[in-house]
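# step 3/5: fold
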Amino acid sequence: MTDLTENQRLNITISGFNLKKLTHWAKIHGKPPTTFAGQIISAQVEANLDLINKQMQELARLEGISAQDLEKRWEGEGESV
């Protein structure tokens, strides 16, 4: 299980074009691209919490399980999709 109190590292892949634009955007804000990308991702997750929770509940309902059971299953799978 992920420690929710500690920052976690995530490796992502983006296009060269998006990396260039992210770098420009980060420089405008005086931040390294990786720091700025983390802030962008965190902000989007927080902004979409209700949607994420609703989608998890709907998927769990379609599978005939609880959202808590779905979350436990996903945690057991690690990063697989």
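# step 4/5: annotate
The mean pLDDT is 94.
# step 5/5: archive (pending)
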